Amino acid sequence: MAVPKKLVREVEALREDIDRHNYLYHSLDQPEISDAAYDRLFRRLIKLESQYPELVTEDSPTQRVGAAPLSEFSEVEHALPMLSLDNAFADEDMRDFDRRVRSRLDTEADIEYACEPKIDGVAVSLIYENGRLVQGATRGDGTTGEDITQNIRTVESVPLKLRGKDYPTRLEVRGEVYLARSMFVRINEDAAAAGEKVFANPRNAAAGSLRQLDPRLTAKRKLSMFCYSVGLVEGGELPERHSEILASLREWGLRTNPLVGVVMGVDECIGFYDAMLEQRPELDYEIDGVVFKVDRINLQRELGMLTRTPRWAIAHKFPAEEGITLLRDVQFQVGRTGAITPVAKLEPVKVAGVTISNATLHNMDEVKRLGLMIGDTVVVQRAGDVIPKVISVDHDKRPGDARKIALPKACPACGSDIVKPEGEVIARCSGGLVCSAQRKESIRHFASRLALDIEGLGDKLVEQLVDADLIHTAADLFELSRDQLVSLERMGQKSADNLLEALEKSKQTTLPRFIYALGIQEVGESTARNLATHFRDLDDLRQSSEEALQEVPDVGPIVAEKIHAFFAQPENEAVIDQLLETGISWASESPPEQGSVLAGETWVLTGTLASLTRDEAKARLQRLGAKVAGSVSKKTSCVVAGDVAGSKLTRAQSLGIRVIDEAELISMLERYGD
Ligand code: IVH
Q: Given the CA of residue 118, which atom of ligand 1 is nearest to it?
């Protein structure tokens, strides 16, 4: 039966109306009708489309969640690389940036800069062909991302169809997908109520939502997007200024940030930054700085770019965020090597939209340095994903009943003595393998990504296995039966089989991984690698003397003593023998291949890194061919600035040396397949 003409026209009119209201609401933030009136239009369209399915088109506003779940994402090669930005941390860095820009352009005159909040979300690329959204992709490593088209289609602020007519035939738009703070709070409340895992911050929640294989799940998360630049453009001209390009994007229905502006010269940049810092707490999305871009495209072209960052833009980062709260208690955690870490239990406090109730106190020296007592009012700081920390104490607010923080005499997990050798900062549980907390941590370490990489063996599962007395050491993992696994709470047959398979797979490893997995004190990934290269054979390493160990690069007397003591312990010997008996093996060690990507470069690490140790970062950079130096000089190629980076960072900035943060380091390491 043919569809009555009248209805065809009504469907078309409804779509046009809905698209227009979407545009008014999302792009212009000027809705003309109530939510209820919008819902009525939408429901009418759904009704007509379900009556006459032949009327459904791909870009109908009802078709945001059309696709079936995927089994995996396919890869997308970016036509133009998706760059990252150089960072400025202080006004002085901004002035240096501006000086570099003017000197390259050989001008004394003030430069016009476009200024935009730096959205803390996930970078994506959208491709419109003849005005139709045909692809959405993640940034990935900047060169290759993942095809997340079906998920992007669920983001209501992303138009499925551009407005107007004068858009290029092929237009790549780039921007940041994010989760509004209010949505984040709601999602976490729901997750907590359902006993599910909560997200640490809105950025993780946005990234996790975009990587759902089932678009219906992404749709539920109500993500948003701000567009901030274009990529490849064909079949059309764009204006000659960045700010005007953003205006064009807005006209075509794409959402850009309403707070963007254009200023003259660096003083106004700093003014813009200060104003944005003040406005930051009121925004319903997280921003971690302000991005400044030379506004004129011809000047951008003249300035060009470095390998991964343009010379015409910079991100002026905000300082880490702080909150004030009460210290309710201090608990002591036991690490893999028995190290006892005091953890602050706080009166929950919101810092930039994230509730913090725990913070690290590092060690007892730090507690002393802060002059901290239970009941004190403290300042906590959160920087990105790093574990929050207590940075200062308001001693004037100390209550009369404040209590001293004392290092316990016995381990909270096993009751063994806690010892703190003279002159050492770290107190340790002396229980060794007797201590279940240490055993759990060492098994977690054994299974971790850089060690044996046992997929599916998460923290919770290790805890369950140790608590149920099914395993005592890492070697026992390989003796686990399917029945034992299935007997565990929340463990299905499929997961049990997957874990057994992962365990089997992990048996084929490398010598450096195996040495690292043993969890010897002071032996990080890079030392493990050096030991493997030097000895080539596990037996030779096991039997080596302290003197022989000191011939290995980076192994001094203290580390040599720890390694020697480890292999001398009968319990450790037994575990290693048992591991070898289960069939763990590796190909013989050949001399390492010379990395080439960073050959000839000298890198410097400064500050604390959150997700990997200095040793690991160093070893991984070395594998890519870089030299890693301890101090910054004119020859330094790049400085990696972790948390609380100090004088090295300042020096790098004053020399105009490239500085990257931890996230960028990791994305680079991952990109080069390390
Ligand atoms: S411009 C060359 N503008 O920050 C231009 N980036 O470290 C590259 N970001 O990966 C990006 N807000 O994900 C630009 N207004 C903004 C931004 C922004 C957030 C992110 C983006 C990029 C990272 C750079």
A: 12
What confidence tier does 592 reach under pLDDT thresholds 50, 70, 90? very low
* Distance (Å, whole) CA 566 – CA 647: 37
Known active-site residue 404: no
Burial of 108 (0-12, 13-18, 19+ CB in 10 A): exposed
> Do the beta carbons of residue 227 and residue 254 sit within 8 Å?
yes
**DSSP reduced 3-state for 123:** strand
Q: How far is the CA of 228 from the centre of ligand 1 (A)?
A: 7
Question: What spacing in Å lies between the alpha carbon of 112 and ligand 1's midpoint?
Answer: 19
Instruction: Please give the Cα distance from 453 to 473 (Å, whole number).
Output: 16
CA-to-CA dists, residue 379 to 287, 350, 359, 374, 382, angstroms: 21, 12, 10, 14, 10
pLDDT at site 586:
92
The β-bridge partners of 659 are 639
β-bridge mates for residue 356, sequence order:
349
User: What's the CATH class of domain 436-586?
Assistant: mainly alpha
Which amino acid does the sequence have at 562?
A: K
Pocket lining: 118 vs ligand 1, CB cutoff 6 Å: yes
CATH class held by domain 86-317: alpha beta
Q: Which CATH class is domain 5-64?
A: mainly alpha
| 98 or 672, which is more confident | 98
Q: Is the CB of 14 under 6 A from ligand 1?
A: no
The answer on pLDDT for 383 being more than 70 is no
- Structural contact between residues 480 and 438, judged by C-beta atoms closer than 8 angstroms: no
Ligand 1 centroid to 351 CA: how many Å? 23
Please state, in angstroms and rounded to a whole number, the distance separating the CA atoms of residues 626 and 155.
41
The letter for the amino acid at 628 is V
Q: Sheet containing 224-234: which strands, arranged edge to edge?
A: 132-138, 122-129, 170-178, 224-234
Question: Which residues, listed in sequence order, are joined to residue 608 by a DSSP beta bridge?
Answer: 643
Name the residue with the closest Cα to ligand 1, atom 23.
Answer: 84
Would you say the CB of residue 176 lies under 6 angstroms from ligand 1? Answer: yes
Tokens 């953003």 belong to 246
CATH class of 322-397: mainly beta
Catalytic residue among 5, 6, 47, 118: 118
Fold agreement (86-317, 322-397): no
85 lines ligand 1 (CB under 6 A): yes
Q: Which two tokens stand for residue 314?
A: 């910079």
E strands of 577-645, at which residues?
Answer: 585-586, 602-606, 627-629, 638-641
- CA–centroid distance, 134 to ligand 1, in Å, is 22
Q: Residue 103: CB partners within 8 Å, gap ≥ 6? A: none
Whole-number average pLDDT of the chain: 90
By C-alpha distance, which of 450, 501, 507 is closest to 474? Answer: 507
